[in-house]
Amino acid sequence: MGSNQDGNDGKFILTRELLDEALPKFAIATKAVHADDFSSTHKAIAPCMHTAVNFRYHRDPDTLKPHENTDPANPQDSHIYARYTAPNTTRFEKVLREIFGGRVISYSCGLAAFHGIMCLLRPKRIFITEGYHGVHRGIRLMERLIGVQKLTLEDLDQLEAGDIVHVETPLNPTGTARNLEYYADKAHAKGAYLVVDSTFAPPPLQNPLNQGADLVMHSGTKYIGGHSDMLCGLLVVPQHRVDEGWDGTLIEDRRTYGSIMGNMESWLGLRSLRTLDLRVGKQSATATELVSWLSTELQKPDSVIARTIEKVEHASIQHDALKQGWLQKQMPGGYGPVFSLWTKKAEIAQRLPSRLYVFQHATSLGGVESLMEWRAMSDEGRDPRVLRVSCGVEDVNDMKTDIQQALESMIRDFP
Question: What percent of the chain has pLDDT over 70?
Fold first, then answer.
């Protein structure tokens, strides 16, 4: 990993430069803990939370430069005003950059990140199917403001240069996956841009930059935060787009419309990144095991699952995609922690979450607690038989027992 030895006594001293040189060789779990080791001049292991809004200029007037306030002792921690940059946010983005492998710009929420995309690329048309309902509301807003036209992913034969192909994968609320290389080829052949919402599968599960995405979006509120206590949005910019200045434009736009993360939220984000690999790996494995169990039980006509559940959807049981091989290549770290259930009766979907002990009935996802949401509560127009399941970090056997007992009670009350 390199060395830094004093010429007189041969002692080793770890420096910022040596750590930065070593970081690319580390795994995600190690990067998440150590990428920001030199982000502060103090010696505290845990990050401090800075609440300052403005920062003192240099006292020596001869060193002043307009719109600059670089601290030579710590250039990574140099700030002017918190709407531009702040210590917590800068440190948060530093760790994220090492995890995602691209320039990361953080926002106050996922929809603010999507707005950043629309302001940067200013498309006349966007091709999108299903996905997060908030993104569709954002498109309606841009339609009202600048006349953006929305088409579906089935209309890609109409693609033109400058259009956006927006692909969410895994998909909300089903947890099923789409082939990103296919959409990248379609978009780039026409000079269009591929934007990927990868909220449901952060690293270590998938990295859409490897499949040719021009921008990757995350609602960091979910798995990046991971504890149901912070709002966050992220955009990941690949290096060739950084070379074209995309990150600079995004940062300037963010400064202008003020959608930067708050001090508390970015501090919470740093806390959460330390366990990202542990949490997401366990949540993914749990979802895959639950889906396998439910799918097996569906094949038994007399089981309580088969009597109450119509079908299960999740990337791990997309058999055609698995046979073709692209799914394992795209998601080498495992499949998403979210899947969906279709009940045989709408009243079962409405009432089942209220009879569970382990699963909470709430919207959002990605926290350490498991959720099962009657999706009609928050997703307008959704089939009333749909339940979205978000796996937390509880014991998987407790989850199975919980689902089993709740469905048994539904059979008693709704035979």
Answer: 98
Q: Is the pLDDT of residue 93 over 90?
A: yes
Residue corresponding to tokens 């952060």: 202
Q: What pLDDT does residue 4 have?
A: 53
Query: 198 with 218: CB under 8 angstroms?
Result: yes
Tokens of 315: 């990337």
Model pLDDT, residue 8:
56
- The residues pairing with 341 across neighbouring beta strands, listed in sequence order, are 312, 387
Q: Give start and end residues of each alpha helix (H) in 69-109.
A: 87-100
Nearest-angstrom CA–CA distance, 62 and 244:
34
pLDDT at 10 over 60: yes
* Closest alpha carbon to 402 in 335, 391, 51: 391
What's the farthest any 2 CA atoms get from each other in the chain? 84
Three-class SS state of 250 = helix
Helix 110-121 × helix 246-257 angle, to 10°: 120
Helices (H) and strands (E) in the chain, counts: 15, 11
Are 93 and 105 contacting, i.e. CB atoms less than 8 angstroms apart? yes
Query: What phi and psi values does residue 79 have, to the nearest 5 degrees?
Result: -145, 160
Contact yes or no for 227/268 (Cβ under 8 A): yes
What is the pTM (predicted TM-score) of this model? 0.94
Q: What pLDDT, on the 0 to 100 scale, is given for residue 1?
A: 56
| Contact indicator for 4, 18 with CB cutoff of 8 Å | yes
Task: Burial-class residue 130 by CB neighbours within 10 Å (0-12, 13-18, 19+).
Answer: middle
Residue 85 token pair: 């940059």
Residues in the chain: 415
CA within 13 Å, CB half, 302 = 0
Residue bearing tokens 């750590």: 19
- The sheet carrying 103-107 orders its strands as 103-107, 233-237, 215-218, 193-197, 164-168, 125-127, 149-151
Closest CA to 222 of 368, 378, 9, 19: 368
